[in-house]
Amino acid sequence: MKLVALMPRHGETEENAKGVFRSLSNPPLDKKGIRQANEAGRFLKRFKITLIVASPLKRSQQTAKVAADYLHSPVETDGRLRGWNVGILIGAKRTQATEAYRDWYVAHPDKVIPKGESINQGEERFGGVLQEAIAYGDNGLALLETHGSGIKFAKSILTGKRTNKGDAELVQPGGIVAIYRDDKSFVLKPIFRASKAREVPS
């Protein structure tokens, strides 16, 4: 299996801690998120990363720039890396009712959430930059700084496996997922959990 790209999830924000839907809201990292970004940046020094691309939202930009300081590499910005636009749920408290509402749209990926986008629209948008990063992996190693839903987009696009539960995460804030490829398939594997500041055992 060849490592073709890395996908860190941004560090924690106050909105993560409060349990609200973030999506296109634009909070900065909180103190824990800054610590997580530094933990991830130190971990990433072991890789020969030659391209860093980040979502335009503050929390991703901050996380990417911390990594860039460790890696001595500039950060490019690409709006396609933003997470799923959950429309009317942005800023809403996560409750059993609001999560059930969200999960209905996850289970019906062609349906557009009011004032937002469908899962299929999000995956189509995200898929372009993801495929570019994988192609770049033939000659270098790209890091895509994104959001939890962006990582889920990548899993669905590359493996065909989509969960109906929106909360099923590969990594929590500050974690890192690696994308591996062999001749026939892709594997997404968590390799770092920032909350414990340690590498995930193989």
Helix coverage percent: 25-40%
CATH-derived topology: Rossmann fold
- As laid out across the biggest beta sheet, the strand order is 3-2-4-1-5-6-7
- CATH evolutionary superfamily: Phosphoglycerate mutase-like
Strand content: 15-25%
Unreliable runs, pLDDT <50, ≥5 residues?
197-202
Which assembly state applies to the chains in this document? single chain
At the first level of CATH, the class is Alpha Beta
User: How many discrete domains?
Assistant: 1
How many helices in DSSP terms? 6
Verbal overview:
It is a single chain. The protein is of the alpha/beta class. The chain has a single domain (2-199), classed as 3-Layer(aba) Sandwich (Rossmann fold), CATH 3.40.50.1240. Helices cover 37% and strands 17% of the residues.
Properties at a glance:
Rossmann fold, 6 helices, 7 strands, disordered C terminus
Structural topology:
Elements: E1 2-8, H1 14-18, H2 31-44, E2 51-54, H3 58-71, E3 75-77, H4 96-107, H5 119-136, E4 142-145, H6 148-159, E5 176-181, E6 186-193, E7 198-199
Parallel strand pairs: 1-4, 2-3, 2-4
Antiparallel strand pairs: 1-5, 5-6, 6-7
Helix pairs in contact: 2-3, 5-6
Short synopsis of the structure:
This protein has 202 residues and is of the alpha/beta class. Helix content is 37%, strand content 17%.
